[in-house]
Amino acid sequence: MFQKNDYVIYGSNGVCKIQDIGPLDMPGIPKERIYYTLVPYYTKDSQIFTPVDSNKVVMRSLIPKETILELLKEIPDLEPLWVKDEKQRETQYKETLRKCDCRELIRIIKTIYFRMQNRIAEGKKITASDEKYFHLAEERLYGEFAIILGIEKDQVKDFITEKVGQSKEMLPV
Asked: pLDDT averaged over the chain?
């Protein structure tokens, strides 16, 4: 069980702070059920209430800084998610995003980055689906990394570039 003031990843909401743990004082909600009250880190004016015993949405601790540094070393060797069929690719992106796994987010970013490069080289536009999932994966990955590293979200890409040692244009993350 998480503790009050812990930071967690909560599904598509990304980084959240546990503001409170306890029963909810709301009509129709059983008083004996215990809930987390979460505040999304990047959307301060909202709250999420989720039962402590629920497993419908992925809720996990933030990864340690050491894990980030190890992941950055793996970036050049991580395999992209190659799926030829457009519908199956979007399904794969959705399933991967639901896992809330940083390594898998990097794989999505890498996949879409290379797809974008290929499409541009062929004189084609970037698909709306690729653009959408690229942005979602970046937001989730950079949001978590920023909190752990103690930097702003818009500084994460530069941090990654510096650690991986490639130019920003050649780095798909």
From this structure: 92
DSSP symbols for 6-28: -EEEEGGG-EEEEEEEE----TT
In order of 24, 58, 79, 139, 146, the CA distances from 117 in angstroms are 50, 32, 16, 20, 27
Cα separation of 128 and 8, whole Å?
A: 30
CA–CA distance, 49 with 54 (Å, rounded to integer):
11
Q: Which residues, including other chains, have CB under 8 Å from residue 103's CB and lie 6 or more apart?
A: 71, 74, 78
Q: Is the pTM of this model over 0.85?
A: yes
Query: What does the chain come to in residues?
Result: 173
Q: Residue type at 36?
A: Y
